[in-house]
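COMPLEX REQUEST
Ligand: S-adenosylmethionine
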Amino acid sequence: MSGKVDFGGDRELSSNPEVTKLRQIFSQVPASADGWEKSWEKGVTPWDLGQPTPVVLHLLETGTLPKGRILVPGCGTGYDVVAMASPDRHVLGLDISSTAVKKANEWSSSLPNANYFNFLAADFFTWQPMELFDMVFEYTFFPAIDPCMRPSWAKKMADILKPDGELITLIYLIDNRESGPPFSNSLADYEEVLKPMGFTALSIQDNDLAVGPRRGKEKLGRWKRCSNNSSL
Ligand SMILES: C[S@@+](CC[C@H](N)C(=O)[O-])C[C@H]1O[C@@H](n2cnc3c(N)ncnc32)[C@H](O)[C@@H]1O
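STATUS: Structure written out below.
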């Protein structure tokens, strides 16, 4: 794990100079897309673990990660994208920052499983995939977006998943932040936008494999839509 990591822990968020730099970037550029691009260009990426998320590796090892077409929105450097990619699992990593996508391609394009993943620079909210997905995995994307976009986030999840597709949210709980990114978020915030789209939690579990100051603050949520309650 890289030494600069820490998007995590409420007190750590306030005192972490990298998070302060991120906030400064976002205070200078009104559009959030520009903010993300600038933060990637300047290397201000305090969320970046520098490795696959341990719970993703655990899901892979235990055979409990769905197969098929997988999307990772807000994928950043793409460690989870690459970790999941296999002949059974074709993974698309999507990020609004072309610099992030360039970095992701740079470190991963010659890996043995490179045929099973792709990266794309696009805005999750306006991008239209050609095919639906069997699974979407997201981590620290929900707290990265402006809270006013959360209903659109949930609608998009419903629109791009197959009817029996699964949404896996690795929820990093953040309290008492007046602004962002990262913005405060709770399990109730996810439920508030996912339930109207027909999603039901299959399971919500504490993530015992959370890294560093994120320990005790993460939950793994697995969601599916009820077949008679789809937004499609
Ligand atoms: C906090 S970072 C998390 C990155 C990655 N999930 C991780 O855990 O390392 C949020 C990422 O979302 C991307 N992002 C923000 N808004 C986006 C959007 N509308 N569409 C796609 N990506 C977006 C940012 O560029 C950034 O890489």
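REMARKS: The CA atoms of residues 23 and 51 lie 24 Å apart. The chain has eight helices and seven strands.
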